[in-house]
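ingest -> validate -> predict -> emit
validate: passed (alphabet ok, no gaps, 349 aa)
predict: started
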Amino acid sequence: MIFMLFNVLAKDSLGCQVCQQTMGFVYDLLENGATKEAIEEGLQQICTIFPEGEWKQDCEKFIVTEYEKIIVILEGDFPVATLCTLMGACDYPLPPISSGCDMCMAGMIFLEDLMSVDLGLELIEFVLDYVCEIFPDTWYADCKTFINSEYEKLVPFLDNEFPPEYICTVTGACKFPFEPKEDPTCEFCIGAFDFLYDLFDFTTENGSNVIEMALDYVCYLFPEGKNRDVCTNFVDQEYDNLVHYIENEFTPKAICSLIDACDYEDPTYETECEFCRIFYQMALDLISFDATEEMIEEFLDHICDIFDSQIAVKTCRIFIDKNFEKLVDSLLQKYPTELACEMFGACTM
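emit:
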C-alpha cells in the first residue's frame, strides 16, 4: 500500500510535524472555499518531504487517486493528528501488544474513534485499507493478513458500530470468554447471549436490524465444528423468535429455555398448589431482576412454550389467564414463592 512509504517518517517527529502543518493548511483552504486544484496542491506538499524518485511519485499519485475520499474525511473535521496517524506519518499511542487479540482490539478502538463521524461504507473501506499504518513493523504484516481475511465482515461491523470486543471475538482474533464443554448446548447458548447483552444495548442504541446482524455472526464465537453447527442450527430454526425475545429483553437463560437449548422438565404435580410453586419459582428464575411490567407481561405470553406436554402447556395457560394481574404484580415485586401462591389462592396457610 502506498502509505507504507510514510513509515520512514514515523521515526522522525519532523515528518509528523510537516504532515500536521500541511493538513492544517489544507483545512484553511477548505474553509476559505479554495479550488480543487489549490487543495490538491496543498496536499501534495506532504510529498515534498521525499527526494525525487519513486517514493515521491507514489505519494503524488496517491493524493490524486484518493483525493475525493481525503476531502470527505477532512470535511468530517477529523483532527489533523488522526489523519496523519492514518497516513503513518505520526505515531499512534498503542498499548502493549503481545497477541493477535491485542492487535485487533487496538486497531478496532482506533477505528471506533473514527466512527464518531459518519463515514459511510466507501470511507470505511478506505480507512480499513490504511489502519495497519498505526502498527510498528513487527505487527504490520499480521494486521494486513487479518484485515484481508476478515474484510467482508469488518465493513458491515464497522458500518453498524459494533463494539471492538464483538468484532475481535467473532473474527477469531480474541477467544470467546467461555470454556466449551462436552455437551455445550445450554452453557454455550447462555454464554452467547450473555456476551451479546454485555456488549449491546439493543433497546436504545440499536434496532432489530442490528440484532439480526449480531445473530448472523454469533455462532462464530464457537470453535469450528460440532459446537458451531449446533449453534447455527438453533439460530436458523429460532431466528424470528430470537429477534423478538432480544427486543423484549428476555434473559439469556429464558431465551435458551424457550428455544429448548436448556431443558426444563414438565412439572410433576397433583394439586394446583404444587403446580403454582413449580411454575412461579421457574418464572422468578427466568425473569431479570430489573424487569419492567411490560417485559413480564411479554414473558408470560411465552413462558408456557417451555413445557413439552400438551397437558402441562394447557395447565400453564389456564393458570396464567386466571392469575395474570396478580402474577405480573408478584413477579414485579419479586414476592417469594410461598407468599405469591397463597395470594393467588392456589395454596393455603
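The two ends are 78 Å apart (CA to CA).
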